[in-house]
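About this split. The held-out portion is used to measure sequence recovery: a designer receives only the structure tokens and must propose an amino acid at every position. Recovery is the fraction of positions where the proposal matches the reference. Here is one held-out target exactly as it appears in the evaluation file.
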């Protein structure tokens, strides 16, 4: 059974930091590209950051480049998102996302239930 335990969300003031964690189980974590997505009220879900199976490759949405850092620990089956210099527009539910890729195709896809991040003074 696939499970994700997401944690680290909460309320933070603008300019503050949070570190999201996602511990996965029920699939071969090291074979999956891991990402963080977010969805703000009234908006579509968007990709925040992604990291390859080994961690050698990462990508980021333009809106978070230089502020957020994604990382993973395959031994702990975990992916992290360090968020610095947070802005009110970063307020959203953040989701852990796992994709088994073959070339440009996605062979399998799992995602977590999300953790709320609220940036407000």
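Reference sequence for scoring:
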């Amino acid at each position: 059974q696939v499970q994700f335990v997401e944690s680290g969300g909460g309320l933070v003031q603008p300019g503050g930091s949070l570190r999201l964690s996602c511990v996965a189980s029920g699939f071969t974590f090291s074979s999956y590209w891991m990402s963080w997505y977010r969805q703000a009220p009234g908006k579509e879900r968007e990709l925040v950051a992604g990291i390859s199976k080994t961690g050698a490759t990462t990508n980021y949405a333009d809106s978070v480049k230089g502020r957020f850092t994604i990382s993973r620990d395959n031994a702990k089956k975990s992916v992290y998102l360090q968020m610095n210099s947070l802005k009110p527009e970063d307020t959203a539910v953040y989701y852990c996302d796992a994709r088994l890729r073959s070339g440009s195709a996605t062979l399998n896809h799992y995602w977590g239930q999300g953790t709320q991040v609220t940036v407000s003074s």
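Annotator remark: The chain has a mean pLDDT of 96.
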